[in-house]
Each structure stands twice: as structure tokens, then as C-alpha cells.
């Protein structure tokens, strides 16, 4: 079956009818689904029509932006807070037929997205895939590294069936090219809310409530507490600082299934729990340096928010952060897993307030480059380009 696509070169965004498929649009809060919600909000403001298809739960983490249609799903074994969308039900297919999209956007390589790609291809609809995380790296954190080549092959099959990809950073786009996932790749970066994240949120009184003295240097971490965020590397580097007798405090902001493991591993750390909105912004700005050794990020929302808050950052030299951080100017890019090198970088910041201030100021200046509307326009323009290309076939 072929569907006629009639969007001209000069067509406004109001000509767009987007079916967006997400494995997690709003039931658990993370950087990827917040980016998707911001994108949908931007598209709706431009007059586009958007229909979102994702698993739904009784008590989601936040209200969805736009119209959300539930997908059949199953809880992930051992990670019940996450759900795997399981195909397209008759109800969903009927809804798709009535909505009649002129472009399909898939944001995770799950069973429903596979079916959505097949549905779109059978109707000659353009398909855009956005890449939000490095799924092929996850098995190594669960003693399953031997299956990484298989996961990569499955991802390649999925992404090669799409017309184009958008990746959050040039470093991630290059990885995708090297893995032969696709060769039509645009950059859909990430923005930061500068009204929320800025150095003025720093709150010494709040730190004191946590038992932190004004002259103590706080090494901070904020993210969902899951092993793939590099919790083991973080803990090993903190142990190395202790062996060197480097005075510091550790502040952990966030929650997740690895909370108990992390607490047992770092019994002296301050765990502030899950924070959001202004409370999160206050917590981040009240740190002195961010330490985030994750290698699974495709962009680095955590890194950017810390930079906007005026913090120097110590992060893995990996996809995402490599496109944000200027090494030895706004932070340090450290070889993944290099415990002593991480400790060296942290020690330098702990010992030198002037270095912290200089690199923090440089990071804040860099964060000013990331405007959400300008960034989301890239995706809207990519939709229109793919529609035009299909119309010319």
C-alpha cells in the first residue's frame, strides 16, 4: 500500500502529522523521555499534529505532553519500573489508521517500534529513529558482555530499516556510522533550562542541613541509580581519594534499583534522594564538582545541567560528554574505567578553588549554546526533508 505525501519544500510545520513511538514517554522520568516531551511541545506550538504511542501506567512520573495512546506492554524482569512495549494492538492500529500520519518517529528499538517500522514501510511512510542510549553497552553491567555483538547486530537491523536517524551528539553520530547503523544521521542535540539550572541556585543553608560545612568540597553525582551509570567506577575512584587522605564529601542525588548497593558501597556518602525541578537545580548548584563516569550516555544531560550550574565536571571520555566538555578548560575527560586518573582529576579540583571556579565558569558559558527551540527545529526540519524525499520516489 502506498500513501501519497504532499508536503512542499516551503510547507509549514503545520503540515506535519507525526506518529511518535516511545518505550517510556512519561511513566519513569529520565533525560530521554523529557527530551521527547519537549520535542512534542515544540511541534504542537508550531501547529503540527502529534500522536504519541507508549506504555501507560496508573501513576506516571509526570503528565504527558500531547495525546498519549497506550501500547500493550510487559514489565522488564528485575526492573519492574520499566515496561517493554509488545507490538501494536488492534486498537492501536485503528487509531493509527484514523490519525493517518505522514511521518513515523521511533525512539527505542523495542517490539512495538519494530512493528511500527513495518507498518510505516508497508505504507511508504518516512521513518525517523532517534537514538537516546547505547543499548549495546548495557549487557556488560550485568555480566553479559558476551552478547554485545548480538545486540549490536539486532540494533543495526532495526536502524537500517529506518530512513534516517537523529543522534544527540556528533560523537554519538560517529559511533553509529562506524557501527554501520545508518548513514543519514542528523544531530538532535539537547538543551538545558537556563531559568532552572544556573549558579545562583547554590544554597549553603541547604548544604548545612545535610551536615556539610561551608568550606567542605562536595563531589556530586546525580542521575537514576542504575549500574549502567558507572556506579562501580564512581565508588572505586572515591575509595582512591580516601586512600590518599583527600578531604571531601560525597553527595548523591537520585534514586533507583541500585540505591541499596550504592549505599552499602559508599556508607559515608550523603544520599539526598530523588529531586526534581527547583529542588534538583538547588542540589546540583550546591555541589562543587560533578563526577559522572557513565559511558552509556548518547548526549550527557547530567553533564550539561551541571555545567549550566557553574560546576567543573569530571566525566568519561565517551559519547555525549566528548561533544560538550573541553578537556582542561571546562572539566576533565577521563579514559573510561581509569580509576587513578579519575581520582587525580578530582584531587586537583578539591585542592584548587581557583581551578574549580575557572573551569566552572567556562562550562557555564558553553551551556549557553544550547537552546531547546533551535535544537528541536532540527527534528521538525528532518521530518519535512524525509517527506519530500519520499514524495520524489
From TrEMBL:
GO MF, any single term: glycosyltransferase activity
Q: Does the keyword Transferase apply?
A: yes
Name all Glycosyltransferase subfamily 4-like N-terminal domain ranges.
30-195
What keywords are annotated for this sequence in UniProt? Glycosyltransferase, Transferase
One Pfam family hit = Glyco_trans_1_4
**What InterPro entries is this protein classified in?**
Glyco_trans_4-like_N, Glycosyltransferase_grp1
Instruction: State the EC number(s).
Output: 2.4.-.-
Q: Where are the transmembrane segments?
A: none
Superkingdom as given in the UniProt entry: Bacteria
**SUPFAM superfamilies registered for this protein in UniProt:** UDP-Glycosyltransferase/glycogen phosphorylase
Q: Which residues form the signal peptide?
A: none
* Protein name, per record: Glycosyltransferase family 4 protein
User: Which species?
Assistant: Novosphingobium bradum
Amino acid at each position: 500500500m502506498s500513501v501519497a505525501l504532499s508536503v512542499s519544500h516551503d510547507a509549514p510545520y503545520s503540515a506535519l502529522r507525526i506518529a511518535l513511538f516511545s518505550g517510556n514517554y512519561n511513566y519513569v522520568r529520565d533525560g530521554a523521555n523529557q527530551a521527547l516531551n519537549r520535542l512534542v511541545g515544540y511541534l504542537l506550538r508550531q501547529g503540527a499534529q502529534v500522536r504519541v504511542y507508549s506504555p501507560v501506567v496508573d501513576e506516571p512520573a509526570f503528565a504527558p505532553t500531547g495525546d498519549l495512546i497506550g501500547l500493550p506492554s510487559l514489565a522488564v524482569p528485575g526492573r519492574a519500573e520499566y515496561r517493554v512495549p509488545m507490538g501494536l494492538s488492534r486498537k492501536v492500529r485503528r487509531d493509527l489508521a484514523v490519525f493517518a500520519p505522514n511521518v513515523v518517529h521511533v525512539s527505542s528499538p523495542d517490539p512495538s517500534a519494530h512493528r511500527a517500522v513495518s507498518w510505516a514501510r508497508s505504507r511508504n511512510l518516512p521513518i525517523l529513529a532517534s537514538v537516546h542510549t547505547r543499548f549495546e553497552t548495557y549487557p556488560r553491567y550485568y555480566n553479559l558482555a558476551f552478547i554485545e555483538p548480538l545486540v549490536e547486530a539486532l540494533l543495526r537491523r532495526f536502524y537500517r530499516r529506518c530512513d534516517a536517524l537523529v543522534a544527540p551528539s556528533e560523537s554519538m553520530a560517529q559511533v553509529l556510522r562506524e557501527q554501520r547503523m545508518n548513514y543519514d544521521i542528523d544531530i538532535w542535540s539537547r538543551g538545558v533550562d537556563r531559568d532552572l539550572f544556573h549558579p545562583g541556585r547554590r544554597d549553603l543553608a541547604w548544604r548545612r542541613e545535610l551536615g556539610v560545612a561551608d568550606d567542605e568540597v562536595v563531589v556530586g553525582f546525580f542521575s537514576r541509580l542504575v549500574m549502567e551509570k558507572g556506579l562501580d567506577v564512581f565508588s572505586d575512584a572515591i575509595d582512591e581519594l580516601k586512600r590518599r587522605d583527600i578531604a571531601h564529601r560525597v553527595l548523591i542525588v537520585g534514586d533507583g534499583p541500585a540505591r541499596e548497593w550504592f549505599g552499602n558501597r559508599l556508607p559515608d556518602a550523603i544520599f539526598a534522594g530523588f529531586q526534581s525541578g527547583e529542588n534538583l537545580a538547588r542540589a546540583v548548584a550546591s555541589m562543587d564538582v560533578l563526577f559522572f563516569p557513565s559511558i552509556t550516555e548518547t548526549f550527557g544531560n547530567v553533564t550539561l545541567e551541571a555545567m549550566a550550574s557553574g560546576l567543573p565536571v569530571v566525566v568519561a571520555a565517551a559519547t555525549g560528554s566528548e561533544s560538550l566538555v573541553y578537556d582542561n578548560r571546562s572539566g576533565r575527560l577521563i579514559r573510561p574505567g581509569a580509576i587513578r586518573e579519575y581520582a587525580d582529576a578530582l584531587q586537583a579540583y578539591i585542592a584548587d578553588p581557583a581551578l574549580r571556579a575557572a573551569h566552572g565558569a567556562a562550562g557555564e558559558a558553553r551551556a549557553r549554546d544550547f537552546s531547546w527551540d533551535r535544537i528541536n527545529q532540527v527534528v521538525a526540519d528532518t521530518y519535512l526533508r524525509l517527506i519530500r524525499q519520499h514524495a520524489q520516489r
